[in-house]
Design goal:
Structural class: alpha/beta
Largest sheet: 8 strands, mixed
Number of helices: 11
Radius of gyration: 18 Å
Number of strands: 14
Mean pLDDT: 95
Strand order of the largest sheet: 5-4-3-2-1-12-13-14
Shape: globular
């Protein structure tokens, strides 16, 4: 069966170590979309940060943001916008502040990215990486006002992230807590993952799972890679993720997406 849509994670996948899309990969995106194949960026990043990378692609594309809780089609229509409810949001913020008071909390609600401390150097670094700007506010007050997040992301040292993932998952059983990178822990509704957003977009476009292909490199990509017709792991992925899937391509610094699309004859 032919491929009608390609999904790609961002960090560690479509962008290289300098957070840029490499020339052959960019040319491949132009070639596949010219043939009528849909393309979608799928990321744990917030909506605006995904669109920042989307502009690098220089093609019409769909967006699956905040680990699958938000989907926007290439015409700008919002297909899905799932938020954590107020009770669970407040419980998550309380657990984080009580047990990990020094971690960087990032709160993504629709178009907006809120933080508890604009001066936090980890926030400053994330703003530089994503080329988007956070807003400082009292996060619990924001939740009580009904501005609820699609995702809460924590930034800390790898050893702390391992602990946070384990302990917060135990304390917040209705929510999904997962590391998306050694220094990142992401919290969403319990049934949210990238495959949820992908499923919503496939149904909207009337494309079957079997006609889809996805590229990813990290733990929050596992559901996506297993859900699509063909899941392809980047060469820079952790060994245990590469062991789960039959298809492994070159690294993100070696034009892994281009190399795989060339291998299967799409470019």
């Amino acid at each position: 069966m032919s491929i009608k849509i390609i999904f790609s994670d961002i960090d560690g996948t479509i962008v290289d170590s300098n957070k840029q899309i490499m020339p052959k990969t960019k040319a491949a995106l132009r070639e596949i979309t010219a043939k009528g194949v849909h393309f979608a960026l799928v990321s744990g990043r917030g909506k605006q940060a995904v669109f920042t990378v989307g502009r690098q692609c220089e093609i019409p594309l769909h967006v699956v943001a905040t680990n699958g809780s938000m989907v926007i089609d290439r015409d700008g229509n919002t297909i899905l916008d799932r938020r954590i409810n107020m009770e669970d949001t407040l419980a998550a913020l309380a657990a984080i502040n009580e047990n990990f008071p020094d971690t960087s909390i990032n709160y993504y609600a629709g178009d907006d990215w809120f933080v508890k401390s604009f001066a936090d150097q980890r926030t400053q670094r994330e703003m530089k990486i994503t080329a988007t700007e956070a807003k400082e506010t009292n996060l619990a007050k924001l939740a009580k006002e009904g501005v609820l997040p699609g995702k809460i992301m924590l930034i800390d040292e790898p050893i702390n992230c391992e602990t946070m993932e384990r302990e917060l998952a135990a304390k917040l059983p209705r929510l999904k807590v997962v590391r998306s990178a050694p220094v990142l822990v992401e919290i969403t509704e319990g049934d949210i993952n990238k495959s949820v957003g992908i499923d919503a977009l496939l149904k909207y476009l009337n494309i079957s799972r079997e006609e889809s292909l996805a590229f990813g490199d990290n733990y929050n990509d596992i559901e996506m890679l297993g859900f699509v017709g063909k899941g392809v792991v980047m060469g820079n992925a952790p060994a245990d993720i590469k062991a789960k899937f039959a298809e492994v391509t070159a690294t993100n610094d070696e034009e892994g997406i281009y190399e795989y699309l060339k291998k299967i004859g799409l470019v």
